[in-house]
Amino acid sequence: MNFKFVPLIALGIVACKSLPKQSRNTTTEIVAPVVVTDSVKKDSDDPAVWINPSDPAKSLIIGTDKDQDGALYVFDLKGKVQEDKVVRGLQRPNNVDIEYGLKLKGVSTDIAVTTERFTHQLRIYSLPDMRPVDNGGIPVFENETGEGFRDLMGIALYKNSEGTIYAIVGRKTGPTSGDYLWQYLLSDDGTGNVKATLVRKFGQYSGKKEIESIAVDDELGYVYYSDEGVGVRKYYADPSKGNEQLALFATTGFTEDHEGISIYQLSKTKGYILVSDQGADQFHIFMREGTKQNPHEHTLLKVVKVKAHQSDGSETVAIPFNNVFRKGLFIAMSDDRTFHLYRWEDIAGKELKSIKGK
């Protein structure tokens, strides 16, 4: 669930302020999707989007079916399952993310990475063919002994300005001492498969519920994650910049759990951060760039109600895809085993801006 500025188009804690409750711009209209995907078999959970660099209209949506007999489903932009690309037999794949241009045997390879909870492994597939490139799975959170400390949940990939790619991984539960998330360097193991090298442990955890949703802003170099029932925490994505928490925002106005996080990019530096208020079937939208005085002050701009029910994972991509998604695409998981696809302009309404569509 994270923003990638892809080659297609170039392709001390700070408590952030929210608008006073009485002045929040909360829509009463329920926004409907323009496309609902085919159903997965068991339990839809988290979507990601692979942008086809030669023809965005042929881009793919990858979504998890979170079950012991789970799968990675692949859909086109009409929501139709691409059966030849679906990966089945996964043991509770939870979240999925995509990154572009990992060098494998010298070849630039786009990858989809999912967390497989019951095996405590990352599973990695090349795109768009969905071929495994992980030697059967990569163990993470090794040597952790607490109950649930190795049960994988969230995943976000980060690519820095030099092209180095990292996986930032979360779990069902973990320590509250500041190393809840583990970050791994992804690279070629010498055979054309991916290896993962642990580079840091970071991230506060309240201990109240759990942490699932993680999102990375590649361009600005930040990682965000939802500490459910508390708020959204913000850190530097680059391990060389340290483990200081930069912000804790979205702390008020949520009905139940803080869940899916996604980013809509208006430019390299401006845009919006969307956070799921799972129990209320709505999304809180915050300013991505912060304020002139403080880049880590993410003001609440709007709350949007959607038809997707109990939405957990979500994704936003700000490019023109086709005649339907002219100004970008917003995807929200719904608990009826589907993913809902929304036009960005329907989410934005009159209050928010959009990229220039074709």
Helix percent reads under 10%
Mean pLDDT over the residues: 93
Number of helices: 1
How would a crystallographer describe the biggest sheet? 5 strands, mixed
Question: How would you describe what is shown here?
Answer:
This protein has 358 residues and is mostly beta strands. It has one domain (7-348): TolB, C-terminal domain (Neuraminidase, 6 Propeller), CATH 2.120.10.30. It is 1% helix and 45% strand. It contains one helix and 26 strands. It has one helix at residues 344-348, and strands at 26-31, 35-36, 44-50, 60-65, 70-75, 87-90, 93-104, 107-116, 121-127, 131-132, 138-139, 152-159, 165-171, 181-188, 194-202, 211-217, 222-227, 231-236, 247-249, 258-265, 271-277, 282-287, 300-306, 314-317, 329-334, 338-343. The strands form six sheets. A five-stranded mixed beta sheet has the order 1-23-22-21-20, with no helix packed on it. The longest helix has 5 residues, at 344-348. The chain is globular and about 50 Å long.
Brief sketch in words of this structure:
The chain is an all-beta fold. It has one helix spanning 344-348, and strands spanning 26-31, 35-36, 44-50, 60-65, 70-75, 87-90, 93-104, 107-116, 121-127, 131-132, 138-139, 152-159, 165-171, 181-188, 194-202, 211-217, 222-227, 231-236, 247-249, 258-265, 271-277, 282-287, 300-306, 314-317, 329-334, 338-343.
